[in-house]
Amino acid sequence: MESYGRSNASTPLATAQPSPSEQQEAIALKRALEWELSLDTRELRSYAWYHGALPRQRAEDIVEREGDFLVRDCASQRDNYVLSCRSKAAVLHFVLNKASKFDFDNFVTLLLPSVENNPLDGDGLNTFKMMLIETGPKLLAEHITRIDIALFLEEPSNEENYYLSCSGLELLTLPHGKLFREDIIERTQCIKLMVAVTILTCQTDLDRAQLLSKWIQVAVETKTALGNLFAFCAIMLGLCMHQIQKLDQAWHILRQQYTESAFIFEAKLRPTLSIMNEASNPQAPNTTVPHVLLYALLVDRPVMDIINHSNIDDRPALYHTCIAPWESKADDFGMAINFQHLDASRGFLKNLGLYRKNAKIILEDAIPRLDELLSDAFRTEFHVKFLWGSSGANAKAEDRHSKLEKVLTLMADKFCTLAEK
């Protein structure tokens, strides 16, 4: 009996010892998990639901229960992904298209040469500024808003760009919507820089003051009449650039000859932008496109980027204008405001029906005044090709933006020096 007992006690100990191959497998798994956890959250590979180049049959074996899902590489479409999920006892597979919402390659407009164009094409600039000056601010705002409504609220109409049958606003909040978030950051930067370029390329302070007034009026119409907070933010970011703010003579003329515009900018528009960025501005009932820029900037941001302030000078320009003001002065380093912007995505989707209802009213009213060339003038495809030329449009976005801002700084400094003389 004792022998039997000893034998029975020793058996579990013997079977509990893993084999060398099992030990190696466990070590390899541990290293793989440590590597996965060390990845930047902006890396798709850092998420447990991403399985890489996983065969279709293996994906169906993994999603066993109702609601299980995973994302894998698409074998038939390079650079795209597939969402595999189990719903009602069946496994469904959806291709997630990574293509940008902007079609730079196929975009053609009469505003630019048909083959290739240089950065800040002279004819394109003159035509754009002429349309800006001669067109009423309400009509300009309507054309901007029409493009933004299509970008955020309309569902894709063709299978090639079918994002699980969701609108841009819905895609904005999804894990695989990172490219779309980059698209709307690009559109914001382009509108901001177009505002600055049109003002800084004027020959006189009087002309600069005239365009300052026009952009202020467009910002008012965009927000108040059309409820487009996204475009309002982009235009205001252009007017608030330090290269524009330092044009003392132009602002002085604005206050003298365009007093109402100057007052509205200082007393209403600038404070409104500030409270929007601090997430303390209640949403107006006529909103068509909400203030999504801060969500797009923050949702893919690593936690260490919030904690570590040592690399603050290396961050994009939009960080310094939209995030740094409240992040640097808040007692909690802006964590509460950060959370409010991220939590705002719930409101985006909850109010999607309201946005579409408001947009339908605006679009129906604006149809008789639709101008194709004016629409082209506010498309991001035109902005990118105009600002950086046909070849420069393919450069890295952050490099393009920073280089152009340096050029604008030189232009502004030149005007300030001439004014001092």
TrEMBL record:
User: SMART domains this protein is in?
Assistant: RasGEF, SH2
Which key words tag this protein in UniProt?
A: Guanine-nucleotide releasing factor, SH2 domain
Using the UniProt annotation, give all residue ranges assigned to the region (Disordered): 1-21
In terms of PROSITE patterns, this protein maps to:
RASGEF_CAT, SH2
Per the UniProt entry, the signal peptide is none
The cross-references to InterPro entries, in alphabetical order and at most eight, read:
Ras_GEF_dom_sf, RASGEF_cat_dom, RASGEF_cat_dom_sf, SH2, SH2-Ras-GEF_adapter, SH2_dom_sf
SUPFAM superfamilies, alphabetized: Ras GEF, SH2 domain
Residue limits of the Ras-GEF domain?
A: 136-389
Sorted alphabetically, which Pfam families does this protein's record hold?
RasGEF (PF00617), SH2 (PF00017)
Residues annotated as domain SH2: 49-104
Q: Report what the protein is called.
A: SH2 domain-containing protein 3C isoform X5
